[in-house]
Predict the 3D structure of the following.
Amino acid sequence: MPSARLKHIGILIKDLREERGFSQAAFARKLGTSQSAIARIENGEQNLSTATLSRISLVLDRNILKLSDKSLDIRIEGGRRLRGTVTTRTSKNGAVALLSASLLNRGKTLLKNMPHIEEVHRVIEVLQSIGVAVRWLGNDVEIIPPKKLSLERINLESATRTRSVLLLLAPLLHWFRKFALPHPGGCRLGDRTVRPHLFALEEFGVRIRTRSKEYLVAHGGLRAGEVILYESGDTVTANAIMAAAGISGETVIKYASANYQVQELCFFLQKLGVEIDGIGATTLTVRGIQRIERDVSYTLSEDPIESMFFIAAAILTGSSIRINRCPMDFLEMELLKLKKMGFKYRVLKTYLGTNGKTRLADLRTFPSTLRALPEKIEAKPYPGLNIDNLPFFAVIATRAKGTTLIHDWVYENRTVYYKELDKLGAETLLADPHRIYISGRTALKAAEVVSPPALRPAAIILVAMLGAEGVSTLRNIYSINRGYESIIERLNNLGARIKILRSL
């Protein structure tokens, strides 16, 4: 069991124990163990068997075995200044892309610094269900493919809870001439079409039929060539790259995304021997290898969206904190916008990441007086403002004097979720499903809110609650745990006061 998960369960057990009025010593006596063992369990320092969890459940009269991140609520004491240092962890989007890309390799893949997040757990569950040997080695993940995949045994529950299952389309082309893949789940952001994926793969000679619950995929042999993407999306580009990576010959991909997870995928494939020109640009040339079989190790890069989360938290709480290992190439536009709004920060040092490619920096934030920008704030393809960072500007705008227009043109329904900020005292005006006006210098207040069923909108509600005076409750934080590792513990380490509850 990953250490992050053990710490999480330990906190739950401690809360339940205290709720029942048991001291550690009394709890230990009822379990027939020592007080030191209870201390280790509650600190996340001891592995827990199913039998042990069952005994704990009986003593506490709550079914610990059924506790999951989906059932968690949190209580936040807002209005507190943060202090200290936090380190940016590795990227959700990069992690799921590399887990999928590991299927291109018939050798052993070691992915280092893998985040312990729900999205990663779901993809690993899918890989394990089809026969891939996947095991955690501390914070690293070792992946060894079988001689034959068993798609008929795919874990449908895990596959349909993550949109990342779409990234398996291209790798599976190199295993099967014909297969079926279930429709993805993930964030509820309207009608997120998969047609660009289908159009891209058609250029490689793939035929895809859509049924009510699955895609039927078939080809008579893959061909290299020129692929013009219907949409410059991250996962679309990743699928095209992975399709080309397993074909002997040269493929030119035009209108490609150059976002951080796409670059991460390219760096990994280069370690597998695939030649890729144009990384960071919108035209990629991929010279693939028909059969890849080598033992490789790759260290994941840091997540610019997580860095932005802590920047937003610092702004909402008026705090000076240090944020280490920020991927600057994917934050420059965000920081420029914030600087023009009045945000004060300092770059303490810059350096290369462990992969030898990513330019990182340590930042110090300072309490700032913000003003709204006269222009609308919208996302653009890299090197523009990242689409996943755009929601943070919605909550930041509540601190900026004047009115801010946020234009979220990519997703159909995401702007609607920004209206949830009104429950915390924000003043917003929804112009249409893509545009929202936010009035600044608003005094946020405590409230009870159910997390939106989408990662970034849920994250900005959490950020807003950190800045809202009083005690707020955020219900069902599964969406947040999909993309942020140990986020509650790390915020508490910065001086926040967040308590994990349960909704059983």
Q: What stands out?
A: The chain has three domains: 3-67, 71-89+302-502, 92-299. The mean pLDDT is 91.
